[in-house]
Amino acid sequence: MIIRTLLAITLLLAGIVVWQRGSVAVAHRQADNAATARAAAEGERDAARAELTQANRIIATERASTAAANALAAQYEQEKADAQAASDRVVADLRAGNQRLHDRWQAALATAGLSATAAAAAGADGGPADRYESAGRIVRAAEECAAQVKGLQAFARLCSGGAR
């Protein structure tokens, strides 16, 4: 009877050992699966962080480019306004007698003393006021063109990554 009891206890212990080994193996597999899933999740997290960092760099670059382009546009608009002011100054100075037109523009004044026909033809151009306005438009157009070329060159340097 003792042998049977010992045999039953031995079989019971052997069964417990086998069951325990199975439970340990299952636990190890679950731990390995969890570690693999964690490593994959960390890899995805690191990739997402890298993408976020790159996106933030791109956004910062785009914002800086936009700010620089807006500054160039504002500078261009200011230079256009300055061109209008220069035009207005030229017209005002011509009217006040502080500046004189080039001799080619003064031709109408030289012919005023000629015959009535010549004087009538010279007056048909609108007189001094028209010449003054034309001179102002020429000055404004030249300065606006210069401002536009300067602005476009600055924008081209900005787009190509060059310094302003």
Structural class: mainly alpha
Task: Output the helix-strand order.
Answer: HHHH
Number of DSSP strand runs: 0
Biggest β-sheet, characterized? Answer: none
Rounded radius of gyration (Å): 45 Å
The fraction of residues assigned to DSSP E strands is under 5%
Shape verdict: rod-shaped
Write the layout of secondary structure elements.
Layout: H1 2-96, H2 107-110, H3 116-123, H4 127-159
Helix pairs in contact: 1-4
At a glance:
By secondary structure, this protein is mostly helical.
Description:
The structure is a single chain. The protein has 164 residues and is mainly alpha-helical. The chain is built from four helices and no strands. The longest helix is centred in the N-terminal third of the chain and has 95 residues. The mean pLDDT is 82.
List keywords for this structure.
single chain, 164 residues, mainly alpha, 4 helices
